[in-house]
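#struct-help
A.M.: can someone run this one for me? Single chain, 286 residues.
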Amino acid sequence: MAEFEQPPAQPQPHAAAADARSVHEAPGPDTLLATRSLVIDIPGRSAGAPLDLTVNQGQCWGILGPNGAGKSTLLHTLAGLRAARAGHIELRGTPLARHARRDLARGLGLVFQKHHDGFPATVLETALIGRHPYLRPWDIETAEDYALARRALAEMDLGDMEDRLVDTLSGGERQRLAIATVLTQDPALLLLDEPTSQLDLHHQVAVLDQVRKIASHPKRAAILVLHDVNLAARYCDHLLLLFPDGTACWGPTRTMLVPAALERLYNQPLSVGEIDGRPVFLPTIP
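D.P.: on it. Structure tokens below:
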């Protein structure tokens, strides 16, 4: 049976379960993104836990929760694409609204859950879109831009597909291309909405290995929306649990992987084991 670190003894605000409590960290010189009393705007839901998150350089955060809990809405809010109901977000100590759009695109890179191709393009042309925040009007991509795009494609196992049209790709290949495009963008903070969707097991591991490698860089970080608790346990050092009633808890992964909290999160009994020293969670089937 896996053992879990005991959560903080003192109750914290917005505890999602009796044995998993929010850990509030003050922003510091290594902080990339911070939220201050942030309440995301979900239509039809009046309540919402104010989120006081501090994402520091070198961290990889996972967002877990059932369908409809607001995971994608939160990610889009952090990217500045949706207005919050209350509170604000800071990127490197400055509110998002004060950042020029070009600077914001250099600081934040978002991979959406769904992808829509507006016009025919090759794989390489699509990856090069990630360099747009660095180009002035009428500029063309440099040799360095092409090198960055090709490196990102290779990292996503798409290096031999650069001349293919995007509409000929499978769903999994399209997902990897979306990640390659944001890697080409080279932002300080990766925001990835279900990056492993449509991927086979090999590519799930390969993609998350690469994301974790990037996030561990001293000047980088990542926030991932995931549905697989076991992948979150392996790759994320911090977790945010979003509950459908609007409550939430967050903190280091070792304090969030509490069976009682996860069972409440998913409304599903769980069995917990251990493989290679890591906790493994499986649904308990009567």
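A.M.: thanks! The longest strand covers residues 31-39.
D.P.: also worth noting: The radius of gyration is 19 Å.
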